[in-house]
Design brief:
The structure holds two protein chains of two kinds. Chain A has helices at 40-48, 72-77, 95-109, 117-131, 135-139, 148-162, 178-191, 205-210, 230-239, 242-250, and strands at 2-11, 14-24, 29-33, 54-62, 65-66, 80-83, 166-170, 197-201, 215-220, 223-228. By secondary structure, chain A is of the alpha/beta class. Chain B is 23% helix and 39% strand. The longest helix of chain B has 16 residues, at 27-42. The chains are: A alpha/beta, B alpha/beta.
């Protein structure tokens, strides 16, 4: 469903992604790990369509479409969802009001009728349960003054509401307490199906006990330098990244 | 530009009027004569005037008005006016046509809660309250346009909210017609909120005609002990309309006064608000939004005078400026030496949507008491790109994303508008304007 081919991207003249290759099939879970500043969030942002990044080479095919041609909102409507590493606070806009606009614009693009107030509320209630998020939180301004964990939970709640085909979770586990981690991971697992796929960006193997990846990739200096199965995550947890850096240096 | 000054032209106009007048020796004529004298002493604020630094009124008036004034408003028949009333048969609907209150076109539903009268020679003579209060609100004597209004206004509106009455809503409509020539209007309202009373007044304008219009409006409010007056004004003018608007209020103890001002369109709008808090434990609230585009120019000049201890004032003005518009905000908080335990807050936030829009904002704090809490903050910026991306990443198109954010930004100024119809109307106007 997603095919990234030799992707290069830069920001403010600085090259960040230096030739990413990655293929993701429906039903798969891919974990991306790697040291701070290696380009994980950049990759996530480029896939979601952040315009500050300039794609200097390569291509991304997404279900028969040239993803890089699409505006961020078009990508979302086509089923791409990015759970932000740092969700943005938007003063004055309530989560409920915002989500209603989002859900209905997405539905319209997918050829579905807009949800009326009642069915929207019903849908919300169901999805709130899934990630155990509080109603009071959703009537507040979007992410404004939310705790770190509340913001992350809200991301997954939005994901549940928008029913994406490809979800990119950028360090969704950071900031979550132990119980919340399990709840959020359970939520993600319940949303998983044979037809959708997930990219999980994380620093910690712990999340991968809950959301079990089919593949684990190591991103380093803008490239995927190693790929493997979930055992690779365990190895990284134990040994850190130095051995990979050394391998690269001697190669 | 002619060499004859505006002051001379207007004084001459006044002299001609007073010669023709059948009320030569009325008490009101005497007041008018004093007013035209103060006007020519004060003069139209010059370019150097600090208070009108960004709004060169003298030049604007000179350039756009020749004083061949016509005041005919044939376009506004009684039925045409009534068409525009809010759907509310439990409210008062009061009509001004080209600056004159027309009781005949108005619908008054009040019985014992509100007293509504025309201010003219007769009522001025007979009504001690009008005589004692009109043109006397503190600080109004420094305003040349208020003096001009006092000299020229014809058929003003007097509203008294009776003691301890919670009055029904009052809508004031200004119908303007400049079809038959340039028009200068002088609407004048005097409102008294008696002890323990509550009132909500809403004002709005409808315009016809393509000639230039100058509206010099004055509202005076006298808010007695424990009374509350809420005042909401929608300024949605045509591009040939120039407005200089003055609100002056005196507050007694335990009182509350609110102004909500929404400036949406027009050539030039200058709003002067001056609130005197003269009784303890009182509150003054000033909210405003200027959401403008094209070449509109909106200048809000407000001041609150904390004369006594233990009072609270809060001011929130927001601006959304697009295209070549200009927004000016000047908010003065004045705390006298005796006014200890004053809490005074002010904020002015602006969002600029184009490279060519301009904002000038200036807080002015003059605090002479030491035990006070005062704060002010102004911000001017663009829409947060991060936030727009976040919303778009959820499937919301760029235009809607901006509208969502701007709408949230603007709606904060609507919190004190109590009438749902009015609130919805203003929300609708705000939203509509966001589709740029
Ligand atoms: N606007 C920018 N200008 C310059 N450099 C930037 C900009 N944005 C990101 N970078 C740089 O790009 C590199 C990759 O950043 P990115 O956020 O993708 O890292 P990451 O792998 O997600 O790290 P972390 O694990 O800390 O979240 C970093 O060195 C960062 O400083
Ligand atoms: Mg990151």
């Amino acid at each position: 469903m997603l095919k990234i081919n030799n992707l290069h991207a830069s920001i403010e003249g600085k090259d960040i992604l230096k030739g990413i290759n990655l293929e993701i099939k429906p039903g798969e879970v891919h974990a991306i790990m790697g040291p701070n500043g290696s380009g994980k969030s950049t990759l996530a942002s480029v896939l979601a369509g952040r315009e500050e990044y300039e794609v200097t080479a390569g291509s991304v095919d997404y279900i028969d479409k040239d993803l890089l041609e699409l505006a961020p909102e078009e990508r979302a409507r086509e089923g791409i969802f990015l759970a932000f590493q740092y969700p943005v606070e938007i003063p004055g806009v309530s989560t409920t009001n915002f989500l209603k606009t989002a859900v209905n614009q997405v539905r319209e693009a997918r050829g579905l009728d807009a949800l009326d107030a009642v069915s929207f509320l019903k849908e919300m209630k169901a999805k709130m349960k899934l990630v155990d998020i509080d109603q009071a939180l959703l009537s507040r301004a979007l992410n404004e003054g939310f705790s770190g964990g509340e913001k992350k939970r809200n991301e997954i709640f939005q994901m549940a509401m928008l029913e994406p085909k490809l979800s990119i979770l950028d360090e969704t586990d950071s900031g979550l307490d132990i119980d919340a981690l399990r709840i959020v991971a359970d939520g993600v697992n319940k949303l998983k199906s044979d037809s959708n796929a997930t990219i999980v960006v994380t620093h910690y193997q712990r999340l991968l006990d809950y959301i079990v990846p089919d593949f684990v990739h190591v991103l380093y200096k803008g490239k995927i330098v190693k790929s493997g199965t979930k055992e690779l995550a365990l190895e990284l947890e134990e040994k850190g990244y130095d051995w990979i850096k050394e391998e690269l240096a001697t190669a | 530009m002619s060499d004859i000054t505006i002051e001379n032209k207007l004084t001459e106009m006044f002299d001609n009027w007073s010669k023709e007048s059948v009320h030569l020796d009325s008490a009101l004529t005497q007041v008018r004569k004093n007013a035209i004298k103060s006007f020519s002493d004060l003069g139209i604020p010059k370019l150097k005037s600090e208070a009108y630094k960004y709004t060169p009124v003298q030049r604007l008036i000179n350039k756009n008005f020749d004083f061949s004034v016509s005041n005919q408003a044939a376009g506004w028949t009684k039925d045409a006016c009534k068409e525009e009333f809010y759907q509310d048969d439990k409210a008062n609907h009061l009509v001004f046509i080209n600056g004159e209150y027309v009781s005949d076109y108005s619908e008054i539903r009040s019985t014992d809660d509100l007293e509504i009268k025309t201010i003219d020679d007769e009522s001025f003579d007979q009504n001690a309250e009008i005589k004692n209060l009109m043109g006397k609100t503190r600080s109004i004597e420094k305003d040349a346009f208020a003096a001009l209004n006092l000299a020229f206004f014809n058929n003003g509106l007097f509203i008294k909210v009776n003691k301890n009455k919670d009055a029904i809503d009052t809508f004031v409509y200004h119908f303007v017609d400049s079809e038959s020539g340039q028009t200068i209007n002088f609407p004048r309202i005097l409102i008294i909120g008696e002890q323990g009373s509550r009132a909500n007044i809403y004002e709005k304008t409808f315009s016809k005609g393509s000639q230039n219009v100058l509206a010099l409006s004055i509202l005076e409010a006298s808010v007695a002990a424990n009374a509350e007056v809420r005042f909401t004004k929608l300024q949605q003018f045509a591009s040939n309309e120039y407005t200089i608007d003055g609100i002056y209020a005196n507050q007694d103890k335990d009182s509350r006064f609110y102004t909500n001002t929404y400036s949406i369109s027009g050539a030039v709008i200058r709003n002067n608000i001056h609130i005197n808090i003269g009784g303890e434990n009182s509150e003054a609230h000033m909210n405003g939004l200027y959401q403008i585009a094209g070449k509109s120019h909106v200048d809000n000049n407000t001041s609150v005078d904390h004369m006594v201890p233990n009072c609270y004032s809060n001011e929130l003005y927001k601006g959304i400026m697009d295209e070549n518009s200009r927004g000016v905000f000047n908010g003065k908080i004045y705390v006298r030496p005796d006014a200890q335990k004053t809490n005074a807050f002010q904020s002015n936030n602006n969002i600029v949507l184009s490279d060519t829009a301009i904002v000038n904002t200036k807080p002015q704090l003059e605090i002479w008491a030491d035990d006070v809490k005062c704060s002010h903050g102004c911000t001017t910026g663009q829409l947060d790109e991060e936030a727009i991306f976040y919303l778009r990443a959820r499937g919301i198109d760029k235009k809607s994303a901006k509208a969502l954010m701007l709408n949230a930004f603007a709606n904060e100024t609507l919190e004190e508008v109590k009438n749902e119809q009015v609130k919805e109307e203003i929300e609708g106007i705000i939203l509509n304007k966001l589709h740029y």
